[in-house]
Amino acid sequence: MVRNSNFPKDTRNYLINRIFPKFISIISVPVLLRLINPTFWGEVALLVGMQSLIVGLISQGKSASMERYFSKMTRAFARKYALRYLNISISIFIAIFVFIEIGFNFNYLKFFDLPYGLPLRFALIGSLLIAHNRFLISILRSNQQSIKVLKYNQLLSISTPVTQVLFVYFIISISDYQDRMIVSAYFFAQVLILLLNNFSLLFFIRNKINFENFEENQSLKKISSYSNYTYLFIIFSSLINWADRYFIKIYSSQVDVGLYDAVYRVLDILGVIVGTFMVAISPILFSREQNDNKYFLNIKQQIEITFLLALAGVFISPIAIELLLPEVYFSQIKIVPILLLGLAFASSASVVTTIFDVNERKDLNLKGIIVGTVVNIILNIILIPDFGTLGAAYSMLIAGFIWFLSNLFFTRKFNFDLRGLITTILFVCLIVFGHFVLWKFTFIYDLLGIVFFLAVSYRAYFVFKNIISFNT
User: Three-state DSSP class for 273?
Assistant: First the structure.
C-alpha cells in the first residue's frame, strides 16, 4: 500500500517519467525523419511493430505481476520467480529467433514482406532487452523507488535517440541516404543503450533493494492468473496498436507506412499523457479496498481530459506537423482528426481497465481488448485497400469506440457509469467531425485553431488539477 505522504512525490516523478521521453521523441523524431527517407522509416515502423509484439511474447505478463506483488515476496521466492522468468524469456526469444531465421531464409514469412538482415536481427535482440528492462523497472516501482525509475528512464529516453541520430548520421556520412545500413544503425544504437541501462538497473536492484517479508504472502497465490491475463492483454494491445502498419504495407506501400507512422507518433502523445495519469494514480487506486464515489470520479476525470486533449490536438496538430515534420509528411494531416478521436476512445478504454485491475478482474480487461482488436483487424482489411492511411484511421476510430463500449458494459458489475460525461464526449465528437469535414488549412483557420486550442487547454488544466488532487 502506498503511503499518502509519499504519493505526491511519486505522482510527480511518474508523470515526468512518462511524459519526458515523449517530448524527447518529439525533438528526436523530426531530426531522424530528415535523415531517414519515408521508405526506410516505414521499415523502422514495421520492425518496431514486430518488436512490440515480441516484447509482449517474451515478457509473459511478468512485469505487471512483479509491480503488483514483488513487495509481498520473500527474497527466496523473488529470486526463484525472477530466474524462472529469465529462463523462460530467453527460451521464448531463442525459439522466435530460430523461427524467424528459418521463415525468412526459406520464404515462409512472405506476409511481412521485409528484407531480412541486420535490422531485423538487431530489432529482435532489442525486444529481449526491452522486456528485461520493463521487468527490472517494475521491481523499482513495486518498492516505491520512483526517483530511481525517473533517473533510469530519463537516461534511456535521452541517450537512445541521441545515439540513434549519431549512428544514423555516421552511416550517411560514409555512404548516402539510400543505404539500408541506416536502419541497422537505428536499432544497433537501441540495443547498445538498452544493454548498458539493463546492467546498471540490475546492479542497483541486487545491491539496494531490501526485502521486508519473511513469510510468504497469501495473495501470491493469485500471481499466476494475474500474469496470464496480463500476458494475453499485452499481446492483443500490441496488435491493436501496430497491425495497421502491416496492412498498409500489404495493401499500399512501405512509403505510406512511413508517412502514417510519423504522424501517428506525433499524435500518440495523447495516449502517453493519459497513460501517465494511469501510472501515476494507479498506486493509490490499487490501495483502495472498495469502489467509492471519489474513486469513480477520478476515472471519469481521466476520461474527460482524454477527450479534451484529443480536441485540443485536433486544432494544434496540423500546425505542429507542419512545423516539426518534413514537407513530404504533410499529406497525412487529413487523418489527424479521425486518428486522434480513435486514440481518445482507445485511451479511455484503457483508463476504464483500472476498475478491473483494482477488483482483480483481469479477465474483463482481456475480453474488451479482444473485441477491439478483432474489429480493428477486420476493418483494416476492408478499409485500407480503398482509403489507404485514412482507412487505417477509420479502423482505429471504430475499434477504439467498440473497445470503449465493451469495457463500459463490463463496468456495470461495479456500478460505474458515464453520467455527467456523455455530453462532453458527444460535444467533442461533433466538433472533431465538423473539423474533419469543414476545416481548411489556411492562415485564418490556423489562427482560429490556436484560439480553440488555448480555450480547450484551459479547461483541461482544471481537470488535470482535480486528477492530481485525488489522494487528498
Answer: helix
